[in-house]
């Protein structure tokens, strides 16, 4: 398991700082805002941050840290979301959609004071492609090392290998590192050891404390290059496993924002003084990944039997503010087929497929994991337990911490039989979910640990490079039909995002992509 804390941090120092942090966190929100002139925002989350490396780390917790400590060429804002200038002050696009040229903001500088140059941008994209982890999937087959060049110190040119209509939308997730700082700490692993627990960044915040399983404290950088923003001097990402505890901390003023609340938590917060609820639609899917490459679920007939045996209405009821998914793509996104034939609870069909499987009488035991403390996932696991009993299949349920779940995705042999996944689109295009969740190049990652279909890969690649919208829609219709036929997932629900804030948080604007990876630079506390 990757340890995000510097190895130099001794256990004694860790315990001492944790004790001090817990004492500080017992103060009400107002005390945070005023203590010593500091204004520190506290965000309650149940997900730890497994890695600081901007070209490796994924998940909403890592995205929160990265989007506040690193910068990208463009950032995303608004609803619907749109790319806006960030490190790049402006850009031009060729008529054929293959060449993008970005002019860097001359004020941009790294936290060590050195200028952000086109060479840093080129180096960052080369490293992202070379490592082929993290968010590299977003540009795979589109951006090549030879296609990223520095025109001059302040201009970088991308010559794409093929048209990609979502190119600007993916750039907010390609973070720029300081070439000088990384190369000075290159080691034998391309700087991975260094960047696991250190920053080489230009963002408005730096990491002040990192305590795995407890909290991560960000501190605003003095004289940050980007002007404006809110009045925060810092922010704390506090690990709170139980959603009910997040809610109570919010009510008591011990947290300013809670990001993992259930529908029941949101109902309990209705009309509570000092609380602002945010319940908004976004492209956020919940599905249960099945191990298609190891164990009993390699059998597609067994996967179909389980798909028909699943109690979908119970999953929807447990979700609260949500709708059932119709196939692998989010409802309403470009190319989604609302009339797609999908699995719904039908025990007769479940038993027909079970009879054609290698376990015609059931009698097997499967394992499902879920995030420890995430009650909604626990309830979904119990629904699957009851559903599988009807097929004489036993289900062992194991709560795990998120970093351990991520580690289990590295091979089919360590991947559990059933693995629940929330996936929130980083950009509003079907490519986001299709590529991340179903392309075989993602194998070994939590979005798609094991599913591998050459036919599906070809459809995904055709869809992401086709410039004609009508043709793209036709491609994604085929993609959805093929994935449903393979039954690699239990297609669950499309959830509305549920966040809650104290009413003294100022400047929050909902953006329907990665909205739980809170951007703090523009926020204030009054």
TrEMBL record:
This is ABC transporter substrate-binding protein. The lineage of its organism: Bacteria, Pseudomonadati, Pseudomonadota, Alphaproteobacteria, Acetobacterales. Pfam families: SBP_bac_5. PANTHER family: PERIPLASMIC BINDING COMPONENT OF ABC TRANSPORTER (PTHR30290), PERIPLASMIC OLIGOPEPTIDE-BINDING PROTEIN-RELATED (PTHR30290:SF10). Keywords: Signal, Transport. Residues 1-33 form the signal peptide. Belongs to the bacterial solute-binding protein 5 family. Residues 83-444 form the Solute-binding protein family domain. Gene3D superfamilies: Dipeptide-binding Protein, Domain 1, Dipeptide-binding Protein, Domain 3, Periplasmic binding protein-like II. GO terms for biological process: peptide transport. One of its GO terms (molecular function) is peptide transmembrane transporter activity. One of its GO terms (cellular component) is ATP-binding cassette (ABC) transporter complex. PROSITE patterns: TAT (PS51318). InterPro entries: Peptide/Ni-bd, SBP_5, SBP_5_dom, TAT_signal. It is found in: Periplasm. It comes from the Bacteria.
């Amino acid at each position: 398991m990757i340890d995000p804390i510097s190895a130099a941090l001794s256990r004694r120092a860790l315990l001492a700082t944790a004790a001090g942090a817990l004492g500080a966190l017992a103060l009400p929100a107002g005390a945070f805002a005023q203590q010593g002139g500091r204004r520190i925002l506290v965000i309650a989350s149940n997900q730890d941050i497994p890695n600081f490396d901007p070209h490796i780390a994924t998940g909403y917790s890592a995205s929160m840290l990265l989007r506040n400590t690193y910068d990208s060429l463009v950032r995303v804002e608004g609803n619907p979301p749109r790319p806006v200038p960030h490190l790049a002050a402006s850009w031009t696009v060729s008529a054929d959609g293959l060449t993008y040229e970005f002019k860097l903001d001359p004020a941009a500088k790294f936290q060590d004071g050195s200028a952000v140059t086109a060479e840093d941008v080129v180096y960052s994209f080369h490293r992202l492609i070379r490592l082929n982890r993290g968010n590299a999937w977003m540009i795979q087959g589109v951006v090549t090392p030879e296609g990223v060049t520095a025109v001059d110190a302040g201009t970088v040119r991308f010559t794409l290998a093929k048209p990609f209509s979502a190119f600007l939308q993916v750039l907010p997730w390609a973070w720029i590192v300081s070439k000088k700082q990384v190369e000075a700490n290159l080691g034998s692993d391309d700087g991975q050891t260094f960047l696991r627990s250190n920053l080489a960044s230009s963002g408005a915040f730096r990491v002040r404390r990192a305590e795995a399983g407890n909290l991560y404290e960000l501190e605003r950088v003095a004289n940050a290059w980007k002007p404006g923003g809110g009045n925060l001097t810092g922010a704390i990402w506090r690990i709170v496993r139980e959603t009910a505890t997040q809610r109570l901390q919010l009510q008591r003023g011990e947290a300013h924002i809670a990001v993992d609340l259930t529908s029941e938590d949101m109902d309990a917060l209705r009309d509570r003084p000092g609380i602002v609820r945010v319940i908004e639609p976004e492209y956020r899917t919940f599905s249960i990944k099945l191990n298609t490459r190891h164990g009993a679920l390699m059998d597609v007939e067994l996967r179909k039997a389980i798909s028909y045996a699943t109690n979908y209405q119970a999953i929807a009821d447990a979700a609260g503010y949500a709708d059932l998914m119709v196939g692998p793509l989010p409802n309403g996104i470009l190319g989604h087929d609302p009339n797609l034939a999908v699995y719904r609870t039908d025990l007769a069909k479940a038993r027909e497929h079970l009879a054609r499987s290698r376990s015609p009488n059931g009698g097997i035991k499967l394992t499902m994991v879920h995030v420890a403390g995430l009650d909604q996932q626990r309830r979904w696991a119990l629904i699957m337990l009851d559903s599988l009993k009807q097929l004489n299949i036993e289900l062992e349920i194991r709560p795990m911490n998120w970093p351990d779940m991520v580690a289990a995705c590295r091979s089919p042999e360590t991947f559990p039989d059933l693995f629940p996944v929330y996936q929130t689109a980083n950009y509003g295009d079907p490519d986001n979910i299709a590529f991340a969740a179903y392309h075989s190049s993602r194998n070994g990652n939590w979005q798609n640990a094991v599913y591998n279909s050459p036919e599906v890969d070809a459809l995904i690649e055709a869809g992401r490079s086709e410039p004609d919208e009508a043709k793209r829609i036709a491609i994604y219709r085929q993609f959805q039909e093929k994935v449903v036929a393979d039954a690699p997932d239990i297609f669950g629900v499309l959830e509305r995002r549920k966040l809650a804030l104290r009413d003294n948080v100022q400047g929050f604007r909902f953006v329907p992509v990665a909205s739980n990876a809170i951007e703090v630079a523009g926020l204030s506390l009054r």
